[in-house]
Amino acid sequence: MRLVPSIDLAGGRSRLVFWPGASSGTGAPTDRPERIAAAFVALGAPMIHLVDLDGARAGVPVNTAAIAAVARDIAVPLQLAGGVDGPRQIELAFAAGATRVVVPVWIAAESLDGLRECLRVAGDWLSVGLDARDEQLAAYPWPGAAPSLAELAGTLADVGVRRLVVSHWTAADLPRLAAIKARHDISLELAGGVSEPAQVEAAAAAGIDTLIVGEALLSGAIEYPGKVMVNG
């Protein structure tokens, strides 16, 4: 399982300060996303996940200068979520330096044709962001009955989506997530929800491909790279 650091961008900076030497009184804190990303890549991070918080509100990538700065300083894939709300936004994300994008699930809820347009631009480097909570999925404007997470994953796989980023998951969701991965030719990335090493170990045991972790890594609650990480 890959352990991927996540950095939230707001106003061109990281929302959280990273201070890897805080416990020992060494090092220096930074909120520069490119420095944080470079530090994790030096430790072996196989990818960096960026969340454009301002972009999520605007519906278009906003922190493009920060994204570009990260892209210049690392030589691993750079995945962007937040503000990637359609084909034009995907093109802007790629122009800024992202190499992978996460589009919101409401695009699929509104129109599978809209999702196909996103796939046309991004291809296999597109992920769809899903909420593990069925009641949250039901809140979107589906043309018919709201699908369950498993049903939606099947529909997305049939359309051509090969990557899912699942948020708001708990340990109780791992069996059904593992079943989705086993049934479909699709990669699962779990985002958020991690505050201690035991959760990392549980996700690895369930066969999850990628675990995206932000605050727990930046705060030092979980040490990077961690004992369960394997390159892949």
Structure, described:
By secondary structure, this protein is an alpha/beta fold. It has one domain: TIM Barrel (Alpha-Beta Barrel). The protein contains eleven helices and nine strands. Helix 9 links the parallel strand 7 and strand 8 (187-191). Helix 1 (33-42) runs parallel beside helix 3 (64-73). The longest helix has 11 residues, at 112-122. The N and C termini lie close together (7 Å). The model is unreliable at 227-232 (pLDDT under 50).
Question: What is this entry, summarized?
Answer:
This protein has a single domain, classed as Alpha-Beta Barrel (TIM Barrel). It is 39% helix and 19% strand. The chain has helices at 33-42, 53-58, 64-73, 87-96, 106-110, 112-122, 134-137, 149-159, 174-183, 197-205, 215-218; strands spanning 2-10, 13-14, 48-52, 78-81, 100-104, 126-131, 163-167, 187-191, 210-213.
Rg, alpha carbons: 17 Å
Distance between the first and last residues' Cα: 7 Å
**What is the topology, as strand order, of the major beta sheet?**
1-3-4-5-6-7-8-9
Q: What is the 3D form? A: globular
Q: Give average pLDDT, whole number.
A: 92
Into which percent range does the helicity of residues fall?
25-40%
Note the total helix count. Answer: 11
Fold-level CATH name: TIM Barrel
Structural class: alpha/beta
Report the order of strands and helices.
Answer: EEHEHHEHEHHEHHEHEHEH
Task: Give the arrangement of secondary structure elements.
Layout: E1 2-10, E2 13-14, H1 33-42, E3 48-52, H2 53-58, H3 64-73, E4 78-81, H4 87-96, E5 100-104, H5 106-110, H6 112-122, E6 126-131, H7 134-137, H8 149-159, E7 163-167, H9 174-183, E8 187-191, H10 197-205, E9 210-213, H11 215-218
Parallel strand pairs: 1-3, 1-9, 3-4, 4-5, 5-6, 6-7, 7-8, 8-9
Antiparallel strand pairs: 1-2
Helix pairs in contact: 1-3
